[in-house]
TrEMBL record:
Transmembrane segments: 12-34, 46-72, 79-95
Keyword Flavoprotein: no
Protein name, as recorded: DUF3817 domain-containing protein
Coiled coil location: none
Annotated NCBIfam families: integ_memb_HG (TIGR03954)
Keyword annotations of the record: Cell membrane, Membrane, Transmembrane, Transmembrane helix
Length: 115
């Protein structure tokens, strides 16, 4: 699998996961705090925003994290931290930035056996 494509996909999905959190939190705020339906949808858009976040970007982020585990040979601890970053709002962006800074989205060279 092409590591540059995986890197780009992971970064886009991590950003999309955070943006979908904003959408969901905005819809929840409007529904329960403002008691309005700004999106013109029943329930103030929470079901739609919830599906975009949960069934869309949240699951994509989890899948991309597992793909990155194998493509970039992440250790178990790094993979668990990346998976947990999907839970708190905006933590996926924090992990993506950390991964770029620490070189976690670069393919490690394969060990060549010495004959």
């Amino acid at each position: 699998m092409n590591s540059s494509i995986v890197r780009k996909l992971f970064r886009v999905v991590a950003f999309g996961e955070a943006v979908s959190w904003v959408l969901l939190l905005s819809a929840m705020f409007c529904k329960w705090i403002l008691e309005s339906e700004p999106f013109g949808l029943e329930e103030g858009g929470v079901p739609v925003a919830g599906m975009i976040h949960g069934a869309g970007f949240f699951l994509l982020y989890l899948i991309m994290t597992v793909v990155c585990h194998f493509v970039f040979r992440w250790n178990f601890k790094t993979t668990i931290i990346a998976l947990l970053a999907a839970i708190p709002p905006f933590a996926s962006i924090w992990f993506e930035r950390k991964a770029v800074r620490d070189g976690l989205l670069e393919r490690k060279p394969e060990a060549v056996p010495v004959a």
